[in-house]
Amino acid sequence: MKQRKKWYDYLWVLSALYLILGFFNILFAWLGLICFFLPLGIAVIRGNKAYCNRYCGRGQLFELLGARLHLSRGRPVPRFLKQKWFRYGFLAFFMLMFCNMLFTTYLVAAGASGLREAVTLLWVFRLPWHFAASAAALVPPGVAQFAFGFYGVMLTSTVLGLVTMVLFKPRAWCVYCPMGTMTQGICKLRHRGKVG
Length: 196
Prior knowledge:
By secondary structure, this protein is mainly alpha-helical. Helices cover about 65% and strands about 5% of the residues. Strand 1 and strand 2 (about 125-130) form a beta hairpin. Helix 1 packs across helix 4, helix 6 (about 85-110) runs antiparallel to helix 7 and helix 6 (about 85-110) crosses helix 9. The longest helix is centred in the last third of the chain and has 27 residues, at about 140-165.
């Protein structure tokens, strides 16, 4: 008998909607903070990875595209992607790029630098985003700069997830996702505290 779907089985729609809305209005990028703080909050409060396992719309989107639409080769994830050195190294690199984005936002907010109306894909390629920037004029430059930077982070992680989805299993991104690595670390620390 087929199991009835629950409300959280459709969170992939929100992930797709986020990417689409940010494409047309950069200020929607701020909504991505939900995907940043919610997993950490669940890991701290509940001590588990319920967000990754149940509520992650991005993982569901990769599953839908990869498994149901057959866009994935379905090959096993390479061993090095699962290794601690890679996962924590990627997390450190990801956080370095995130901190760089925050620093750029600070410079723009402080007036030391002008607003950069571009989204950086894979931390290297600057994509002009002028068509999505009309709403940016309605808010302070620092607020708009954060939106451009954060959308770049979210778009980059989505592109990396899509590439690994096509090459390997649909949810290959989940193996080295920075949020998954952080929540796993929080859960380990929390359970170690209970044992000790």
